[in-house]
Amino acid sequence: MHNRRRTDKSRSPSLNTRTLFRVAILGLTLGLVVAVGAIAAIFAAYHYAKPGLPDAATVRDIPLQVPLRIYTRDGKLIQEIGEQRRLLVDYDDIPPHVVQAFLAAEDDRFFSHPGIDYQGVLRAAWKNLLAGRRGQGASTLTQQLARDYFLTRERSFIRKLKEAFLAYKIEQEFSKEEIMGLFLNKMFFGQRAYGVAAASQVYFGKALVDINIAEAATLAGLLQRPSDYNPVSGPESSKRRRSYVLRRMRELDFIDAQQWQNAEDFPLQSKLHGPDIELSAPYLAEMVRRDLANRFGRELTTRGYRVTTTIDSRMQQAAHYAVRDGLLEYDRRHGYRGALTSLDLDTATDAQIEQALTDFEGPKDLHAALVLSVNDDDSASLRLAGNREVRLPWNGMRWAAPFVTRSRVGDPPESASEVLQPGDIIYIIETVTGMHALAQVPEAQGALVALNPEDGSIAAISGGFDYRLSKFNRAVQTARQPGSSFKPFIYSAALANDFTAASVINDAPVVIRSSEYEGEWRPKNSTGRFYGETRLRDALVRSMNLVSVRLVLRMGVGAALRHVRQFGFMERALPNNLSLALGAGAASPLDMAGAYAVLANGGFLIEPFFIDRIELADGELIDVHVPRQVCRDCEIEVAPEPDSITLPAATRIDAEVGEALIESLDPATIAPRALSATNVWLIQDMLRDVIQRGTGRRARTLQRQDLAGKTGTSNDQRDAWFAGFNPDLVAVTWVGFDNDEPLGIGEEGGRTALPMWIHFMRDALLGAPNGRYPQPDGLVTVRINPATGALAGANDRNFLFETFEAGTQPALVSEEQLIDPFSDDSERVEETELF
Questions:
Q1: I need a surface site. Which of 146, 357, 606, 754 has the fewest CB within 10 A?
Q2: Which of 106, 171, 747, 802 is catalytic?
Q3: β-pair type (366-374, 644-646)
């Protein structure tokens, strides 16, 4: 027995070894089976999901929604239009601390895993098991990118499998840097911000390259739950989340202890920032939007079109202030219409006051204010929104005579208490001196268009006092009577029909009897007077209506129409009757600017345009506008058909090649000559006289010798115009009421529209030298008798110089033929009756 026991003992170690070996083999077998099963399951799952998996390479072809952006020709942002705010940015342009913040917040092993972080999956699974619920996820940045490009956010096993497989495929197709760039441009950050660059602008008002570590951590932190973690809607949650990201950045050695502390101490911003608009030109922006909507349809605001316009930012700013100040000046002349409303200061609470000031928030530059008191020095103490107090001095309100009618105001006020009462809510405006003045929203409207006469590019445009109050663009959408601003085209027709600047026409009454006029038409001068025999030059300088009518009578309406059409007018501007002589058609300020450009550039017909080029956000050139350009050495008679070149959408052209393309385009777009150089030079010369001694003489305050132009006033002072130019710039201003009511007695082009033009041209031509109007061949200058327009005799002391087309200069007349053209003798003024 004893020996048997010993024998058993001696054999037991061998049995244990064999048992352990068998267990190990069994374990390995089971492990292998499980592994093979897992691989088989994954393989089966892959083949199950594969038919529904897109090609990862298609990520390159899926366009991100990028808004339309509109720029001036000097690169200033005018407007951003689109539901999603997105600024595409290359990976190389993303600051390292921004990338590190997202790694710390979302996926610190991003640069080492193959798209699926197995360690992260196991860690998340273990933590969720300990917590007894689903809590921590383990999606990598690549998986999140795959989900946002191709999948939904439903929580299902199949979706997670597809996400993982797609992430792996994406990792095979793209570099890590490309994936990070796609991720940071794609993801949603709340507040309509898509992509980290747009989020930087929305939350901090900064370019991405300018944000600091704390701000980068804020953006990285809010990505998990944009509605809860953004600093605007959830500042406390956002700050806690930022601290977590900063702590992780410190643990990963992305930042040192000092950087960590500085970022923790950095104040959290909780204010939204709009697009970084650098120039206000809303009427132009809407013109661009409409144009592109017609071209590109629904993708207008999603494909990332970048439009460079012809607008000059300095001139556009000048146009804005010229229209604003011109309308405010007109409005002040017609009296103060009273307070917007009044509050009882004894009972109104702070909340009610703030609400009232908010409700009456004015258009740009005008601020609602509550009158707190009227002081002994005739100033007023005012409260603005935000409980800020300012002082309104007497000089800022002494203009406020009470409004009675458009043609009459009450007596000027003698004290502030005649204008304001405590409790009144009014508008004020800040003056250039930093003081404040009483203001009101003008009821009249205005418009301004300025363009380059050499190619038609619009340099500035304003369609009204304030776009927020009225989106109707009076610069292009209105059609009003141009009145006397149309006369230069009639005089140009006269010169083409055997008249000269020295031709003498009788400025006497004309009676037109015709069924077309429903009885009699008796045109008259704005002064109500008649001036007798007058040379054409003086008639244009003094804007005599009867001379214009008699010119059209003599040359015929048909001949006048044929000539005036060469200025590019639409048919609505050209009535087929004698009212053509007085500008009784209908034209927009843009129509008038295009026509005056023919006078400014020496007789060439150009086409106004406002879009220079269209590109995509990545620089792909879509369209370049090639204007019809004045070329005096290569004149043509007929305008070419193509006015733009459209490139195939697939053509990719970098900026340098694009510039070379534009420069190499054959000039098949030469502006055609519309009028002879001699005809146009003579009209230019007469219009310079309008500035120097005629109805436009207020413009002499600009102290320039190269300005030419013409005032215009329609019937009953319903429209006031000034159209003028120098060799480099045409500008047209208009003032009127949208409902076509009269502007009031005395409101004419020279008083109402010309100051607006002067204001604009002063800024637009600042520093520019005087332009030249080279005299073309075919002109001669001779001495004439100012009374008769005839050639002056050798001994004639009463003479002046006049220029003529060669061969049209007058002959010498005898003393018996001399008359006084400015005689008030009524017997010399004969009424002409036409049937």
A1: 357
A2: 106
A3: unpaired
